[in-house]
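Course assignment 3, question 2. Fill in each field.
Student: A.L.
Task: Predict the tertiary structure for the chain below.
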Amino acid sequence: MRLENRWRFNVLAVLFGLAGVIIFIQTIRLQIIPAGKAIRQEGDDRFQGVLLDIDAPRGQIYDRTGHLLAGNKIVYEVGIQLEYVEEPSAIAQVLNAVLGMDYYEALDIANIPYNEEDAVYAVVERRVPAEKAALISSFIEQWVERKESGVQEGNLDGLVIFPYLHRNYPEGDLASSVIGFVAFDEEGYEEIGYYGLEEEYNDSLAGTKQKVWVPFNPNYVTETRHVPTGVSLVLTLDRDIQMMVEDMVDKAIEDYHALSATIIVMNPENGEIYAMSSTPHLDLNEFWKLGEVYPPEIPFNRGVSQAFEPGSVFKIFTMAAALDAEKVTPETTFDDTGSINVGGIIIKNWNEDAWWEQDMIGCLRHSLNVCLAWVGTQLEADLFYQYMNAFGFGTKTGVDLAWEAYGRLKEPGDGDWYPSDLGTNTFGQGVSVTPIQLIMAASAMANDGKMMVPHVVRSIIDGNSQYNIHPQVAGQPVSAETARVLTDMLAISLEKEASSATVSGYRLAGKTGTAQISMGKAGYTKDRTNASFIGWGPLPDVRFLVYIWLEKPTTSIWGSEVAAPIFPEVVEELVVLMDIPSDDVRNALFSQ
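Answer field:
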């Protein structure tokens, strides 16, 4: 080595030494500084593996007897990894042949330019059934075989299939308005629940996503961590009763040509809803048809989301309040002259006739507006609205379903309340309620004065634990004695009237409702009504409470002619499905 070149080697040695010192210092620094953790994690993510979010399987929904109403099944997503596409036309041909896609639409997707920032993967179609997924897989396998043998045509590189769990409803449209459905959100990224139980319990049913580390080095691969399923729900609904009620709803539409029909069956002792059905029905497996089945103005579940004026069924709450406040007794008489002035307006009966002397049973039996308006004046406004608030009108019931509406109960002090409202409110005009509010309020009459919160979830199953939903008392608006007296009055009314709502062998209580429909400033229609009936039994040990509502029936406007006849049809099926013996048999058993 020449002496004149030695300094060059010394300089290089110093430089390499300094570089080593700098690397050593930087390595130590990365272990110490806070930002070092993020840098190390980024290195791990890029070169050692990837951290994936794994969705939990969605919890299932069962009826009270264990029938599956909502579960999961494996379906497939067909997509294209844009980076590997070499022959878009071949991919488009397969998608056209198997999925029925328009060839040029498929070609446009396959031709999307790859971009590492925002164009890596394109979804072609979700919810692809297993048979179609298998056919696409066979095409891909055939291409791989041809490729290995040197054939270049028909390149399907980039076409991929991923299995995933998708919500499935084995009963189709059964209890659709109660269950709701699961679909992708607006961004098309995450499946979430819409309407009914699927929305109300979405977070619990969906469970918690788990982060799972997947190493690139196969030597470090371990068994994938178990992802717990979301909670499952056992409902108070009875599949057989629900099916019967849905048949009755459809039959009512056909028989009475109503715009809609709603029926709710509840156990008034604990608030369990055995069935809830309203029209129209949606096959939950075809939720994308929502817009076709439900125009924007139609609620998904009329039973909880649609408020309307109830008409004469409201009279039972006015009478209960007056009985409880000791303003009247069943024997109190009223001389009905056919009209009464309350707050400056003249109120008349449904047929505009005078019914002369009637006791309170007769007032209910003949559904006399004039008599009930007089009863309201005996209570006076403060006491009347105090009782109506106690019955829960104007507030939500707390039912465990999404999109519950409030309804409206105007009161003294509200800007749009007038003294005349006291008269009209007594017979259900000028008040708006939901079916679920009515049935909760009526549960007080059928349950010795205790009003029960309605609910459709009976128990929640989380892993190996089960949590039962306990009945909740919403209040006691009237005494047990008042409830029993009013129930007896309504039973006598049905019996004396020889009503079409009676059922041979079973003593029942009930009341019809016919409400003209408000047209705002134009007043009320006379040819379109909300027709309804509410009833419970068998007496005295009540097992069921039924509310029936027909919106704008056209064969008749009267609740007594279109809603009341449905009640015995429902009851005749209920006593069989619930195994309730006739009064004579029960009395004989109790006397032994």
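Instructor remarks: The radius of gyration is 34 Å. The mean pLDDT is 89.
Grade: pending
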